[in-house]
Amino acid sequence: MAIAEITQSERLFPPSSSVSELLSELTGRERYSSRAGATKPEVVPTVVTVPSRGKTVQFNYLDHGEPEPSWFAPVLHGFANLVTLSDNWDGEGAKRIDSAAINRALAAIEQLLPHDAPAPSIVPVPNSGLQIEWHRNGKDLEVEFNPNGSVEFYYYDEGTEEESEGPVGAGFSNVRDLLQRVW
Amino acid sequence: MPDHYVADDPAILDDELLLRRLRPDWIVPGDRGRMRIASAAFKNEELSVLFRSLLIQQRRPDSDALREHPDDSLCSFTVGLARSLGQRVVYDTEPPNDPAHGLVVGKKRQSDANRLAREAKWVIPPEPPVLPDQKQPGN
User: Fold this and answer.
1) Which of B21, B23, B39 sits opposite A142 (nearest CB)?
2) Residue A98 CB: number of other CB atoms within 10 A?
3) ipTM of the predicted structure?
4) What is the pTM assigned to this prediction?
5) Which segment of A103-117, A149-163, B10-24, B121-135 scores lowest on mean pLDDT?
6) With a CB-CB cutoff of 8 Å, which residues 47-86 of chain B face chain A?
């Protein structure tokens, strides 16, 4: 599954629809196309629409017909919340979240997370960046995507008080082992 | 907001409580089903806070900090904690700012922001989310 881009629609979402209804529809959707009676996976450009803050956000991705990752719906919901933040979203003058940072984070999630990984929280940062984070099993892991292109991590183990932070490294080499510990 | 180097104000005591307003986006699932404060809430180089002692002097309740942000929640941490992380703390009460306003100034590493998030205490916690079957008629 390759999440290619996000587009945001300004039209209001019908008030009778809810996030949960849409996401459950997404989760249970048939994702194989059938040809001549046989079911065969094929790549299908797909658009998922997620409502947030009275707007709709469209996620465009290539559906390879694989089972949907467990984190798919909550992650899209989290990013929809980011995309619909406007300038001064924190009441202290923060600019809206940088779209390039959002796309880098989406690409990283696709690259790093196996299908059964727990969904991260998607959190806006006042510098118009974002962080994806897990707080599980007494451990904290955050990966911050800055608008200047840098990507940094923070890890903390409550039990041992082990703490580390810094750049994620090439191919997220400094984070991969930590992800396993948090999951 | 100051646009020059700001020195720490030594007249502000270490045990002074600082109130920090939290957007709903900064409350995330934590361990054991609890919600926790995201470190992103503490990453501004000029972190906006209210001095609790000034609110009390001005005979204002803590909830005044959320007057224009009713969906937000409120936490506190001490000046001493901020200083232990290399931060400078100053009053910033000139109009049009809130007369209890202050700043925690300094670059905050992720470890600094996480320490603030871990040690902050709830003053006005977030409302638990309302599930669809809990909604009252007319809501």
Assistant:
1) B39
2) 20
3) 0.87
4) 0.83
5) B121-135
6) 48, 68-69
